[in-house]
């Protein structure tokens, strides 16, 4: 990342509790590095957009902020892939209304697009009490200047609705962005803090539209043929973290099962990426990364398992019996009893999810991985034939890694028609790793054959996933009362009905599953045959 300049804003936001502000301001991490007295001011900013929210859709911000007796108009671009930086263009205006004629920078004009002032409407206003303390980290040429802003206030809509905000904002004025992570990690030892990836603009637009937090799938990753191996590692890891954090809010709410599912997908993608590039990562760093990923995935796993059981396994059986016009009424009652017990288990599992996401360990994990990427931590190793390849184009390695993953999947599925459930589960894991590798590198290849390959891979994955869900259901039903509680009358019978129902379904689809395996084996590779010397 380039150093901050007049058209760039490089910052890290941390959600905080207002009662911790005094403790944080007095912390040695800030007090001992202060370069002058703290200053306080009130910031009143009005954010503008069109009726159809064209700017918000592109994550572009247009605001006018009252500063003393004057006004400053600001245009901001969408955050960079690392979440730290974004473009910023400011100019003085004469009132709280935007004046687009004063924007002359081509990049800023391109962000706004074909926009006229008559289309703009005030969407929301933020009123923030800000206390600023400038600090310096390091000495000499390595010194970094950071503005630490303690923000407490509200986002207000014209109709009176509002939302509180409280955060610590670390903005880099000069020096290396890695110091933002250094300071953030120190502050988390003083008071509970959480990494805040949402901008004030994003929160304001969400409040204005009344849109609930939505689960988001991973965005397509873009790598260029000139991207180095270490550049690919950085982009892939950042993309996985962004995918996970983007689903935090909906997961904490617990209303949409897709939230925790997408967080787990992001973690699996991250672990797969770390394993894919393992030869380039020092052993101690690899062990820490995998250990933390396992911890978090384990914290999210039970909630996802009970979501799947309730929605995909139990629900269709209950629906079928409920629609049977009174036939099997006792079974219906038993299935309803089982559903209530499973729902109680699911709710307890979500308590564990919230505890993990709100924990200091989770914040330390996010900041630790972010710092590792920003500092290119993998360079901390002796020079070797492997480490030198970090600076070579990734395209030369992608073919080799894809071929390697594909061969592993083929070996795992050898004799597929006769594989027991446990080995099919191992095949499913191998296919997941292959698919993630394909998604990481797909932008390096012609899209049409890649898309065809992914479609065949996904069809087989989904079918094997259902087999795994049925196997998991058996385990879950045994764990339903592992807390010492007693099962209600009829629960065992209902459990038998659910397992039997899906076991029959698995048997009925076996021929189609074998056909999917052969379709996958016959799918043409989209990558070139790797050089044996690679």
TrEMBL record:
Segments forming domain CYTH: 7-211
InterPro entries referenced in this protein's UniProt entry, alphabetically: CHAD_dom, CHAD_dom_sf, CYTH-like_dom_sf, CYTH_domain, YgiF
Domain CHAD: 226-533
Stored SMART domains: CHAD, CYTH
Superkingdom of this protein's organism: Bacteria
TM region(s), chain numbering: none
Database matches in PROSITE patterns: CHAD (PS51708), CYTH (PS51707)
Gene3D superfamilies: CHAD domain, Hypothetical Protein Pfu-838710-001
Molecular-function GO terms, alphabetical: inorganic triphosphate phosphatase activity; metal ion binding
Protein name: Inorganic triphosphatase
């Amino acid at each position: 990342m380039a150093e901050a300049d007049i058209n760039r804003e490089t910052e890290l936001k941390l959600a905080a509790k207002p009662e911790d502000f005094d403790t944080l301001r007095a912390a040695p991490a800030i007090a001992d590095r202060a370069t002058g007295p703290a200053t306080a001011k009130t910031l009143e900013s009005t954010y503008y957009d069109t009726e159809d929210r064209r700017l918000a859709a592109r994550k572009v911000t247009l605001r006018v902020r009252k500063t003393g007796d004057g006004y400053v108009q600001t245009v901001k671009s969408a955050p960079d892939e690392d979440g730290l930086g974004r473009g910023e263009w400011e100019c003085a205006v004469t009132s709280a209304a935007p004046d687009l004629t004063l924007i002359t920078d081509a990049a800023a004009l391109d962000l706004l697009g074909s926009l006229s002032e008559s289309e703009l409407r005030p969407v929301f206003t933020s009123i923030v009490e800000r206390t600023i303390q400038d600090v310096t980290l390091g000495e000499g040429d390595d010194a970094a200047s950071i503005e630490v802003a303690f923000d407490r206030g509200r986002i207000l809509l014209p109709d009176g609705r509002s939302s509180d905000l409280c955060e610590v904002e670390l903005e880099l004025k000069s020096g290396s962005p890695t110091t933002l992570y250094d300071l953030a990690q120190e502050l988390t030892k003083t008071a509970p803090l959480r990494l805040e990836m949402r901008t004030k603009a994003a929160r304001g637009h969400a409040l204005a539209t009344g849109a609930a937090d939505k689960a988001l799938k991973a965005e397509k990753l873009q790598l260029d043929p000139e991207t180095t191996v270490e550049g690919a590692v950085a982009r892939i890891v950042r993309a996985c973290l962004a995918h996970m954090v983007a689903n935090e809010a909906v997961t904490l709410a617990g209303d949409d099962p897709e939230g925790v599912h997408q967080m787990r997908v992001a973690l699996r993608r991250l672990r797969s990426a770390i394993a894919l590039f393992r030869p380039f990562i020092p052993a101690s760093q690899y062990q820490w990364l995998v250990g933390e990923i396992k911890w978090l995935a384990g914290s999210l796993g039970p909630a996802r398992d009970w979501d799947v059981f309730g929605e995909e396994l139990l629900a269709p059986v209950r629906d079928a019996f409920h629609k049977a016009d009174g036939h099997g009424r006792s079974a219906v009652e038993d299935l309803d009893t089982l559903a209530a017990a499973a729902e109680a288990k699911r709710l307890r599992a979500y308590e564990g999810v919230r505890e993990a996401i709100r924990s200091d360990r989770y914040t330390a994990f996010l900041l630790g991985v972010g710092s590792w990427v920003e500092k290119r931590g993998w360079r901390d190793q002796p020079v070797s034939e492997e480490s030198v390849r970090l600076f070579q184009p990734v395209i030369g390695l992608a073919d080799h890694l894809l071929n390697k993953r594909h061969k592993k999947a083929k070996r795992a599925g050898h004799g597929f028609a006769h594989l027991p459930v446990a080995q099919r589960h191992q095949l499913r894991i191998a296919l997941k790793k292959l698919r993630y590798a394909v998604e990481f590198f797909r932008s390096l290849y012609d899209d049409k054959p890649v898309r065809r390959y992914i479609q065949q891979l996904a069809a087989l994955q989904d079918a094997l996933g259902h087999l795994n869900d049925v196997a998991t259901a058996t385990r879950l039903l045994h764990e339903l009362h592992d807390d010492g509680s007693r099962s209600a009358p009829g629960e065992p019978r209902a459990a038998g009905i659910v397992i039997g129902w899906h076991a029959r379904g698995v048997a009925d689809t076996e021929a189609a599953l074998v056909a999917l395996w052969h379709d996958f084996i016959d799918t043409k590779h989209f990558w070139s045959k790797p050089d044996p010397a690679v």
